[in-house]
Amino acid sequence: MLRRQLLGSLPLLGAGAVGLVYPAAAPAQQARGNTLVVVTTPEPTVLTNAINSAPSVAELATKIYDGLLEYDMQMQPQPSLAESWEVSGDGKSVTFKLRRGVTWHDGKPFTSADVAFSLLEVVKKFHPRGPGNLGPLEAVDTPDEHTAVLHLAHPYPPMMKGLSSLESPIVAKHLYEGTDIRNNPANNRPIGTGPFKFAEWNRGASIILEKNPNYWRPGRPYLDRLIFRFINDPATRAAALESGEVDVAFFGTITPAEMRRLASLPSIEIAQGGYEALAPMMLLELNTKKKPLDDKRVRQALAYAIDRKFIVDNVWYGFGKPAVGPISSVYSGSGLYTDQVLRFDVPDRVARANALLDEAGYKRGSGGIRFELTQDVGPYGDDYRRMGEYMRQAYNRIGVRLNLRTVDQATYVRRVYTDYDFDMTSGWYVGMGDPTLGVQRQFVTSNIRQGIPFNNVAQYSDPENDRLWAQAAVETDPAKRGELFHAIQRKLVEDSPVIWIMEMDLVALQNKRVKNLITSGLGVRGGLYETRVEG
């Protein structure tokens, strides 16, 4: 029953039992007492990614929390809090043997009760991707403190790709049980089992994490301290990296033009890789419950009106490629991606957009304007506003007046995800190792969850779409699964509840003295326990 197999060939759910092999200890000349300073934006509103998957939250929280598993560059599972795992013959249960001797940062022991509570009461209910990651998980048995048995209603191939600290962080039951989980004080003073401990939050300036001296990986982490800096001005962020005041700049903190310039300097380089497994996608989400966006002809017209290649080349300076639909081409190798969908990158796209708006009954009025829309600009860096300014010009060509609204992240999250007080909003999502994990949440009816960020905020609901996703989640035949995902892509692009813009190259910039920044398929969203700074 105990098997080691590549996920791509798993007939049911995915299984394996592998021993953890640590990289060789760092050479003696490498400094072990050091600090890594990173700059990111915006400042997170909460520090626990079990309830919020915003990029800056995930970048920080994955250093504090562990998951049951980690993943290598090919998204194959590796042990973390689980040392080994066993899948039942019918694929409906998975038994995890948990690591012994692990403690929470407050000194309490980590046990199987923490796993059961985290998955069922926190991740599945509050993590934006929780329903997709855990799918048909119904119960977790804990026969002893170091065994957790996950019971599923049916075999679920994607789950074994969704158990990292990014997707399913394990939180402390003794801190959360019986509390208002979304408003628990531990969300902003997090206590995990991970390589770094929360130390200090200087609002508006920095968050400091310190080395966990009792971390279960021998000799890790190498860093003594990890400092997240928040600098309002992008030019100042760039100057801080160039001067060496900052060691690493995450994607979105520095304008792409400056990224290209800085990467040409002898002391700075692009940290390659680590984002492919995330399958990041930039998009515009449309409020399909508000006129005129309740008409798919209007949504299609808006999709035709923008030149994606222009955006990639002139706003993002080539850090990506034009998108054609909801699923990234990184899934091509598994047969899940197709570009045989309604294409908006056609030569007569502006004429088609105008014709669709005329057909929908939105004739040009005074000044040639058909109607007005407001775009809530994603609070992830100034380039989102630059992209919005391009879109304002593009939409003006088809008689749509676009207003741009920029606010702080807390206001943005409340307005868009809690109040649904928006027309369209720019942002980006991750697809993760399987579309069921990261893409499905944006489009199925069951994931219209008001107040929980980064879900189906378009409020798109279609029975045929729901049926296709449900079939794809349980289909084990690769060819049939591919056909289902192709049908999903054709259906969603036709209905256009979202405008897909760009498959992102989610690269970071680093000073060359930083070593081993990217060591897993999750890139900078990994634990950074192998990262060090030389010199």
Report the radius of gyration as a whole number of Å.
Answer: 23 Å
**Fraction of residues in H or I helices:** 25-40%
How many helices? The count is 14
pLDDT below 50 for ≥5 consecutive residues: which ranges?
Answer: 1-32
Beta-strand portion reads 15-25%
Strands of the widest sheet, in order across it, are 8-9-10-1-11-19-12
- Ends apart, CA distance between termini: 49 Å
Mean pLDDT: 91
Which of globular, elongated, flat, extended, rod-shaped describes the shape? globular
Class from helix and strand fractions: alpha+beta
The main pleated sheet reads as: 7 strands, mixed
Number of distinct beta strands: 21
Give an overview in words.
By secondary structure, the chain is α+β, with helices and mostly antiparallel strands. It has 14 helices and 21 strands. α7 (296-305) packs antiparallel against α9 (349-359) and α13 (463-474) packs antiparallel against α14. This is ABC transporter substrate-binding protein. Pfam families: SBP_bac_5. Keywords: Signal.
